[in-house]
Amino acid sequence: EKKLLSVKDLRTNFRTADGELSAVRGISFDLDKGETLCIVGESGCGKSITSLSLMGLLPSNGYISKESSINLNGTDLSKLPKERLRSIRGRDISMIFQEPMTALNPVLTIGYQLREPLMLHQHLSKQKAHAKGIELLTQVGIPYPEKRMKQYPHELSGGMRQRVMIAIALSCRPQLLIADEPTTALDVTIQAQILDLMDDLKNQLGMGVIMVTHDMGVVAEIADRVMVMYAGEKVEEGDVESIFTNPQHPYTRGLLNSVPDIDDPSFELEAIPGSLPNLNEEISGCRFHPRCPFATDRCKADSPKEYELHSAHRVKCWLQEEVEIHADDRETIPS
Ligand code: SF4
Ligand code: MG
């Protein structure tokens, strides 16, 4: 069985003073063992909320609706009690957060923070966990690991801290690693080093990786498949090759034109004027229509269905209908 994760109709809402907000609006996708899926889109598109939903780490006013399922090896995570979910996190699923300083405890040594999950989840003795910690630091390319074990987070550089986070995340050999902008704050050289390392470990452990990023350079480097999100919806999904060489959704094409930094608020998307709608803004039809240069009356009225170009490439846009009609025409032309 190759399939690791199957997410069906994920809907994540928030209760706020202004009413219900829908941050994720019915997303479905699968992930195989040893596969890397990159989730891309602008800040606020729902990509981080999607990863937090998978981990069961939503803020207290957030919840996943009943019709959703998050199936990891036959267990629906969205229906598990908090304690069961906590034990699965750290054993079967790990997450690498955006900001290493907020995720590492500043008053505990690196060694303590590496040993603790190993002792808790793998029931290693303190000595064995210590030896394993040193081995992990070596694996993530940290020199003088014995010395580092005794140090506190502030004694390490940003790149080192992020590698420590990766070591902790991988310490329990998770089946699924969820990484949210893990290298955004790092300089380019260290970023490349860490992406290489994640890729190696993915191949060695056969673990599935979900990487949330706004950086199409990172996507090109590590993705097997790409999911593009807009305003809480999946608008396109495909293998990395198809997305880069044959993007179909107007938003995806805009994203690819807008490299290098779509998350920089001062940066105007050249091909896509306007900005993401607010979460509580109801938009009729296609949620991208206010920004889409190809929008028709139909786009304003009806939400597009999802079209499948070939098995690995899906697009939610009415423009695909014309493509389909033309394909039918071709078939009816006698040769
Ligand atoms: Fe643009 Fe219409 Fe496609 Fe939406 S469905 S992306 S508005 S062409
Ligand atoms: Mg984010």
Automatic annotation (TrEMBL):
Cellular localization per UniProt: Cell membrane
Keyword Iron-sulfur found: no
Pfam families recorded: ABC_tran, oligo_HPY
Lineage: superkingdom: Bacteria
Main location: membrane
Mode of membrane association: Peripheral membrane protein
Keyword Nucleotide-binding: yes
GO CC annotation, single: plasma membrane
One annotated GO molecular function: ATP hydrolysis activity
Keywords: ATP-binding, Cell membrane, Membrane, Nucleotide-binding, Transport
GO biological process: peptide transport
CDD domains associated with the record: ABC_NikE_OppD_transporters
Domain ABC transporter: 5-256
SUPFAM superfamilies, per the entry: P-loop containing nucleoside triphosphate hydrolases
Protein family (similarity comment): Belongs to the ABC transporter superfamily.
Name listed for the protein in its UniProt record: ABC transporter ATP-binding protein
